[in-house]
Amino acid sequence: MYEKILDIAEQLFMTQGYQATSTRQITEILGVTQPTIYYHFKKKEDIYYAVMLRLSKDIEQNLTKFVEDPTQQLESKLISMVEFLREKHPFNFFVMMHDVQHSLPKEMTTKLYQLFSSSYKGPFIRLLKENREKLQASVDIEFAVSQLFILMASYLDNTNPKDNISEMIYLYLHGIYKE
Amino acid sequence: MYEKILDIAEQLFMTQGYQATSTRQITEILGVTQPTIYYHFKKKEDIYYAVMLRLSKDIEQNLTKFVEDPTQQLESKLISMVEFLREKHPFNFFVMMHDVQHSLPKEMTTKLYQLFSSSYKGPFIRLLKENREKLQASVDIEFAVSQLFILMASYLDNTNPKDNISEMIYLYLHGIYKE
DNA sequence: GTCTATACCCAGATAGAC
DNA sequence: GTCTATCTGGGTATAGAC
């Protein structure tokens, strides 16, 4: 049941957000009563943390594989990694970021942000550092990765009609300006 | 009182979000009782719409002035416009986008998205179209403006430690890649 | 482990007095 | 126009039976 709760909670939290997802809704889908949750978790926010922990472990492992792939170049690695996030994490990134920053208690925010930074951003930062010589000298890598995540958010968001990740990566790498 | 409600509601909605802002909180700040709101507005979501309507009119007028300024070039116009949004709209864009997409009824979402597209995005689209010859031929302008807004969101968000808008615009225009 | 019952709180909204 | 009083419904969480 613990894992089942996480499965449903993951889906609901990531699509509707933390506040909009009630413990009742989770248990209704599972066909059990609402207090059942409180045998497995002490508080609602603990469910959120457990969901994020499970998710981020999986994400980090897989992203790292792409970074270490010796057969691919920077641009195609980036595309693969973003494609992977789209498949594995077909949620609205905005919802997640919003929750981490606004829907949860402060301490939880800190813990979640650390989790997110290492698992999600970490592999991208490593990738760009290993390709430092291909980047403009003035670029701040941590900043550049933040920007990429923001862009990705719009991509993994279904409100964006476009579906061409390589186009997004191209703009990210080369900008919109004619040289 | 109507305008006063909008003033307070604007601030609360834009910082805390729609769901986290209660009618009680708004009226407490104003020093009146909670039902007072329902003399001026039929539903809570009507307050949100009125706030967005007032805000977006102001934003559109001002952004358009920058676009029409004959003394500035593309890059400095972009910087001015984003700076203006930061001053006038010192809110978390994510919060607003999250609300528009997830916290409000579907019909309202549509209305708000149209409002946002014309008032906020409109002037930027116009600016890029008027500078078409300076952009890479492959760039889709509507898409490029969407990307800019996403980037801006991270900028107007206080979680981003960096505070240099021109750096963001530079990356947006030129990308991170060494040519 | 899951149930029933329920406490408690806070939300949006309405009725009707002043 | 704003008030008091109140309805209704939703949420998280707990106690204790089975």
From TrEMBL, chains A, B:
A matching Pfam family: TetR_N
DNA-binding region: 22-41
Domain HTH tetR-type stretches: 1-59
Protein's name according to its UniProt entry: TetR/AcrR family transcriptional regulator
Entry superkingdom: Bacteria
Keywords: DNA-binding
Lineage: Bacteria, Bacillati, Bacillota, Bacilli, Lactobacillales
GO-annotated molecular function: DNA binding
Coiled coil: none
Keyword set includes Repeat: no
